[in-house]
């Protein structure tokens, strides 16, 4: 009996760690070890074919911080990220709010917004690359039919960023919309019904009830969109396959991940490529922490203000008449 009791205590105390250990073991093998190994490579003169060379310390980092190509790639990354993330989150929130309404064929519409996410990124990029072709693309043909000037989608900086951001938005908007929709479905319907009785319209209920209730999910979506947006690679890599330089002839849409890929596999400089990878990793961590702190500050300030009564028509309450009949009276405050 004492052995069984001891075994039960050990099972209750340590078995949860055993159950979650596969994830941490797998993370250590495919996540933590490559991260540490990349840092080791970044402080050495590491060649693609020759392997490890001399220890150079932080010279690879210094060389990249002084390189205009690195800062150009960083500018392109943030430009495409802002052009894709902000409209993507706004449109995803709007679509989720529409799908949360009592509409017909809910399942059909909810599955339809997920179709772009199912399509492989390579197929999406090739389709949009053809559509944004400067000579025979669909977009420029439509502009020409309307007697408008065609746009150099693959030559100029801003149009190329817009084209790549359009690809990202098309693929990820529906995915984020379904995540936000799941959070909206968890908001108690009694809150909306009470606000509707108080006279609040649909838009007021959305900003006063829905958005504050899904704040944790919104923070998650913002952070994941930030991480994915700063690591964009496939879209700019395949946007112009005919270009000999990754990211356009003048590197006008070469992102940071595409730049480190060029350093590693075209120039064979694994040391500097690893340094770029680690600097991008630190930038993503800093931006993620800033997003978390800003979101936490907004949440705490909202909690301190406390719940607000939604203004509207005066609610009515039912009073019992002494004679037994019921009558309505305004709720005076």
UniProtKB/TrEMBL annotation:
Recorded coiled-coil stretches: none
Main location (coarse class): membrane
Annotated Basic residues bias: 306-320
Domain ABC transmembrane type-1: 74-291
Record InterPro entries: ABC_transporter_permease, MetI-like, MetI-like_sf
Record membrane topology: Multi-pass membrane protein
TM helices/strands, residue ranges: 20-40, 78-99, 111-132, 170-188, 209-233, 275-299
Residue numbers spanned by region Disordered: 300-333
Compartment(s) where it occurs, according to its Swiss-Prot or TrEMBL record: Cell membrane
Entries under CDD domains matching the protein: TM_PBP2
Protein family (similarity comment): Belongs to the binding-protein-dependent transport system permease family.
Protein name listed in UniProt: Sugar ABC transporter permease
Protein species of origin: Glutamicibacter nicotianae
